[in-house]
Model the fold of this input.
Amino acid sequence: MNFQPSEAQVLAVDSWRKAIVNEVVPITRQYLDRIIPKHEVKKLLKITTQFGVGNGWVAAADGGLGLDFVTSGLLYEALAEYSADLAGVCFVNEGAAAKIASAASPAIRERYLQPTLAGDLIGCSAISEPDTGSDVRAMRTTATAVDGGYRLNGEKLWISNSSVADYVVVTAATGDNAFTMFLVDREEHGFDVREIDKLGLNGWSLGQISFSDVFVPDENRLGDVGAGLRETMKGFERSRCFISLLGLGLGQAALHAAIDYAQQRRQFGKEIGKHQLVQQLLAEMAVELEASRLMVFKGLSALDVGTGSNIEASMAKMFATEAMVRVTHKAIQVHGAFGISQEFPLERYFRSARMLTIPDGTTQINTLIVGRYLTGFSAFS
Done:
């Protein structure tokens, strides 16, 4: 159990941080509370994919960088400290590319995989629906077999990257308790998107996608008929870890800001960092951040060794995202009235951290997954 990153990982993260500061931040700081537009996303992906952020999970033989999940996690955590919004855009795009690499037909792989890995195309994945939420087996979006393909009808909600995506990997019902994945191209096949205004992470698109009798050819099916739900559920292990990494980045940014402020701000004749209660707030933030980091990277390590990380990922998600709400809250307290001012970034960190307790299984859903593991009883049935 070596908790120290390798020399190669340290060098990779250091090089990546320099690129973030010099090339990424000048763009992302223009979109702190508004969606990063599509042309800017593609410009940013051209930068991130050079370092394996947005294409690292795909094997080198398929055109990706073939990074292990721990190394990828270190890179994503570094990016999230500066722009959790862009980190979210990248990991959703990377997830779409990974599904194409593992399940697409040769024609679809040739057409979509390399452009996605290079940042020329943007993908998203659509699972959640307005009336089903975490009950994915109750999804109502259907794909009806017709000559040469399928007709898609239905709505997907809470879909990240939806407004900027060139295509969507959608999971739809193809029969009784049978679900299948399809790649739907925005221009070729058509779908409607409605952007959703939300609490935080406002640089990262989140919306509703509607399919109205959309024809998708057979070659656009990803994987076998009926295998879509299994592949979807496997992806949650990875997603729960990477959503948690966005929280770690936000928490680290909040802690750095709080320490800097505590060292400079003077009250009652001395720096506020010399007051015991301020030191307590900082210490509690650091401990929760470190505990969360250990849990998240344990989940990533389980993915790397191939043992699966369903429990580790759910534990990390339920603990780390809630902990980062507490960390960013305490950073606001250290700043006092300045903490709630939009002239400082703390209130934005807090809003964005609060967002992360919801996607890829709410805190309560992940609690029930852990409970099922501990007792052998499912609360879902």
User: Anything to note?
Assistant: The chain has a mean pLDDT of 95. The longest strand covers residues 149-160.
